[in-house]
């Protein structure tokens, strides 16, 4: 029994060493885990969500999967407005005024979406976890906190990108995250003798 315990402990230690070697990192504490995580997600979502908006043809911005659903243009505008609102709430910055309609041209809606991610990047740059418990109100009268605003922002990115992906697929378009990786041209190979 004693030998089994030693072997088990040694095996566990070896597995932990191997996991550390494979991952290349130790499990050090993360400074500002909430704000760092949300800020770390932003570049990927900005790339995918803007890419999804750019992928939809302009004439399909009025597309609705069913009559009671929002148009794709409304979805893009909603994402921009939500980014501005939640990043302003989480940071204490003033949200930019967006005066667009879902029926505006694709280029205007895509520009507003890009600008919303630019605003979030600037607004969240100095946000850390020191004020996560500060109270604030979201969506009219819902009591929340800065942590709540950051978590809802992250949730919204997942939700909205999933909706964009569905709209694109219903139109026969692969969303950015489903695109095959770009192939690099093969390096010139010397002729075989």
What characteristics describe this protein?
193 residues; mainly alpha; Four Helix Bundle (Hemerythrin (Met), subunit A); two-stranded antiparallel sheet; 5 helices; globular; disordered N terminus
Task: Walk me through the structure.
There is one protein chain. This protein is mostly helical. The chain has a single domain (40-176), classed as dinb family like domain (Four Helix Bundle (Hemerythrin (Met), subunit A), Up-down Bundle). It is built from 5 helices and 2 strands. It has helices at 2-23, 33-55, 72-91, 106-124, 146-170, and strands at 135-138, 142-145. The chain has a two-stranded antiparallel ribbon with strand order 1-2. Residues 1-22 have low confidence and may be disordered.
How would you classify the quaternary structure? single chain
Roughly how many Å is the radius of gyration?
23 Å
Strand content: under 5%
Order of helices and strands: HHHHEEH
Q: What is the 3D shape? A: globular
Derived structural class: mainly alpha
CATH superfamily: dinb family like domain
Estimate the helix proportion, in percent: 55-70%
Q: For the residues shown, what is the average pLDDT?
A: 86
Please give a quick description of this structure.
It is built from five helices and two strands, in the order H-H-H-H-E-E-H. It is mainly alpha-helical and 193 residues long. A hairpin with a 3-residue loop joins strand 1 and strand 2.
